[in-house]
Design brief:
The chain contains seven helices and 26 strands. By secondary structure, it is an alpha/beta fold.
Amino acid sequence: MALMPVTEAMAAILAGAEPLPEEMVALDAAHHRVLARDLAALRTQPPQAMSAMDGYAVRSVDASRAATQLKVIGEIAAGRPFEKTVGPGEAVRIFTGGVIPDGADAVVIQEDTVVEGIGITITEAAAPGRHIRPAGVDFRTGDVLLAGGTRLVDRDLSLAAAMNYPDLAVRRRPKLALLATGDELVLPGSTPGPGQIVYSNGYALRALARHEGADVIDLGIAADTVESTAQGIRRARDSGADILVTTGGASVGDHDLVKRSLEAEGVTMAFWRIAMRPGKPMMHGRLGGMRVIGLPGNPVSSYVCGFLFVVPLIRQLSGRSDVHHRIETALLGRDVPANDQREDYLRARLDVRSDRALIATPVSHQDSSLLGNLAAARALLIRPPFAPAATAGTPCDILRLPS
């Protein structure tokens, strides 16, 4: 099978991936959940004109000149409106958030007044509307302020509360099962035997999936046998996973059994090699409603492919409006050679020059096993297939890595 271009692989993975069903959650539980539908305000904010400062509610026509004296006829606090109308020559003491009384159309802040018995003398003239928040200045009933597909951040929760929503309709979180494969893998804290290595891929991938809003099931490490790998696949299916991610065993060696195991369990394979670096031996298929992505075993390849392909799939199943990573433009920090037929994703550091230009400098060694360089990188620098050599200072495309 020929190597599949990255864009075609992405299209195959996302094809038919509809947003998951919605569910109602309490507002406090909605942080980083994805809205299932547009949210329209249930109330007007503020519902009435209110004072933006502590001072005195007045008729601007009475307070158009400094040294004017006014009689104070009452007091207004937030939540305690004044029932009377402000007449000629009158003022009402008002505090921030207090409702502007009938007859008044301005607020003179307390710093611009001198209290004298039951009255005040203003020291700065008032203007109509000054220091008043008009009714609906924030929003009005029916205004759509949060769109369906929005992943809710902390400020969105405050807005939804002000719109008078105690609960929100959000998409169900995608359930992602992660299965590692390989006799050579041991857990952190173990003493590796001859030829063994410490398992690291899962820790980044699980964190990445959770960061994107998925619920993660850790299926552990399968031995290099078809039966052990197939057993893990069955556990993922039986758990109701929306996505199964495997790591390792995706190449073509005698001990790379993942593709064979997936097909034995009925997975329909869409592709198993991509024209990209790192990550050529990557697989995708489906088992009923479960989408399967087989990542390479090398830790950098595993992470880069997880970032590029698993993250958009999680986002699409979550119903997010921002499914794809945002490509930014930077300047090359050093010369890079011409590229071959595979699309390159070079790990790169990011710096901001004195003129505020963003500089992307590929790390010195791009080997797909070097986790130190991956950890030092802040972006992936994209080099298209057959891109010519480029010199430092040339514009380039980058994808920022999660921080």
